Amino acid sequence: MKRTGIAVRLAALILACSLVILSLIVGYNYVVSRNIIISQDEHTGAGLAQATSARISKVLFAVQKVADSIAYTLEDAEINEKLIDELGRRVLAGNPEIFGTAVAFEPYAFDPAKLYFSPYHYRSQNRIASTNLGSKDYRYFHMDWYQLAKELDKAVWTEPYFDEGGGRALMCTYSVPFYRNVDGKRIFSGVVTADIDLSWLQKMITDIEVYETGYVFLLSRYGTFISSPNPDLVMNETIFTLAEEKNVPELRDVGRSMLAGESGYREMEDLPGIGEAFIYYMPLPAEKWSLAIVFPKDEMLAGVTQLSHTVAIIGVVGFLALAALIISISGSITQPLRKLTVVANRIASGDLDQKVPEIRTRDEVGDLASSFKTMKISLKDYIANLTAATAARERIESELRIAREIQMGILPKLFPAFPDRTEFDVYASIEPAKEVGGDLYDFFFVDDRHFCFLVGDVSGKGVPAAFFMAVTKTLLKVVAERGLDPGQVLSKVNADLAAENESCMFVTLFLAIVDIETGETRYANAGHNPPVLLRRGQQPEWVPPLNEPVAGVMEGMEYSTKTMSMSPGDTLFIYTDGVTEAMDADKNMYSDPRLLDVLATLDCVTAEDLVATVDASIKAFTGGAEQSDDITMLAMQFHGPDGENKE
Amino acid sequence: MDIANEQRGDWLLMRVGGRLDAVTAPDFDKDFQAVLDAENSHVVVDLAGLEYISSAGLRSILAAAKKIRTGGGKIVFSGLDGMVEEVFRVSGFAAMFTLYATADEAVAS
Q1: Contact B91 A550 (CB under 8 A)
Q2: Looking at the 3D structure of chain A, how many domains does it have?
Q3: Which of A71, A96, A122, A202 has a 20 to 30 Å separation from A248 between CA atoms?
Q4: Mutation site, A550, A557, A576, A584, interface B, largest B CB count within 10 A
Q5: Residue A538 falls within a domain, yes or no?
Q6: Which CATH number characterizes residue B14's domain?
Q7: Which of A55, A67, A125, A57 lies closest to A91 in space, CA to CA?
């Protein structure tokens, strides 16, 4: 898995948080502004619709008044054709918005001889023309404008229609029923109409600017488009047919609501030609028309969208600036760390001369760098010290090794030691433990007849023991060569060793002097393990211990000398506690009985073979467990004077 | 090696168990020095629990004895048997020190 650095994680975390905050701000800003705009546009729509409807109503109301007053005038019985003609001309002259006016009488109501009587004054090429409506092709009293007013018994605006006569203008007719008093009764006598050309209305409506593509449309009482920016719709389509054709059900709902004379504000998903939009509509109650204003959503919210975009852009720019800043800051924080890491790796791989980069920032990284520098210096010092110490230790070890070699070198190692002597045979071996120990053995002639041999074991280990051993060995030889008894030798040597022996070192010693002519052997024992005497053809036996103290502890000790006689073929086996206390892996000791058992198996072997056999037995017993003490053995086999080589 | 100290009247009884050899001898030296530092002048070293003693162990005992005697104190040993007794006997230590069969006897003296 790839690691992500602190800088990346820090930057990612902060930027993610910033992004969330920014999104919330932009989102909130958009929603709130949008709601403000929508509510403002609702007011604007209402205002615009009201103003527009007022302007329309004002014109239509004026027309209504004219028609109403004609109708009122006609209730007067004294009315004649001339009067009607004048009335018509006067109305047209005084009311430029009125295109034409008719006074349509019920059949035979004006003149019992006339089925049709409907003088119609209208504008034609800048003058006022008149005609009489009604023929078998045009039975005006079957027309809507006449029927509605008559049946409903009130003034009505007809559905708009195209004037077939002049210029296909969109016309609308206001019809007012008029009555005459006949025998005290109000009898319906006909209908007065005022035709108006709706071009002004259409123009007025199409001139209303609603954003870029917004528009106003006007529906008749049946939902027919009276005015729309799309001229194809006018008088050809109703809002319902349009909804059906364009498959916009919500438009049908709006249409129903409009025709029911309601006011409303509706959000549209998909208005034909516009897309998302808001529609505000309100009725023109007098004419039973309904006016609607369409606000294209994208334009209406263009400001909000623009604002949101601007905010978002500012946000994004800010975000990028923040990102750059954070990345550079976190980079600048972690760059020294990275440098340190590189250096640390190099230092870790042993290059202590790597220069720690200078980081002067007074912060944790600076602290780390200076700690690092200190660490490097300490480490260097430590390693230098360690190297020096190791070198010193190696030197000491090598000196110890050399000392050990010297120590071992002072022990006689050449066998056969006296090849020209046949009276006896001597063999000794020392197997030094890993740590410097203090075992010793020696043999030498004190004079022509007396052969001295000894084994000793200095207490403890290490250099002191080695020194003590060397001193002991030297003293022993010097003192023994004076021809003293073994006991006296030990007493003398003890006195010398015990003097000023602050370290409480001591040495156990077994020293024997054999007369090679007679086999008489005198010996003394300073706290040493009892040796084994192997008499030829007999079981081995311990040389009884004298229980006299170890040497080097107390001055003024006197050691006794014992005597035993050795016959040809007898062997005296002297050893140190390294033999009997040799241990296997489970810390079991080789022990005295085992030694005796091994020796019991031997008969007529040379001194060398005897030592080798015991050695092999010890090795078999310990099974390779680490040796903790020197293993020293010495065998002296007496052959007797018969074996003497007289030359 | 384990050492347990116990005050028995005028005597401080030191029970030494386990093995007293080159490895454990320095511990014995330290513990004995602590006993001396605590102003104990009469010490019984009970070796009943000791299984093995090497020449390094003997040297520690010798050094301990020398120290306490130099200060005019007294040291006795008890509970020697088996290998330990053998070593004490052969090395002549038995002749150098006062030995008792049990710690109780040593304290009673």
Answers
A1: yes
A2: 1
A3: A202
A4: A550
A5: yes
A6: 3.30.750.24
A7: A67
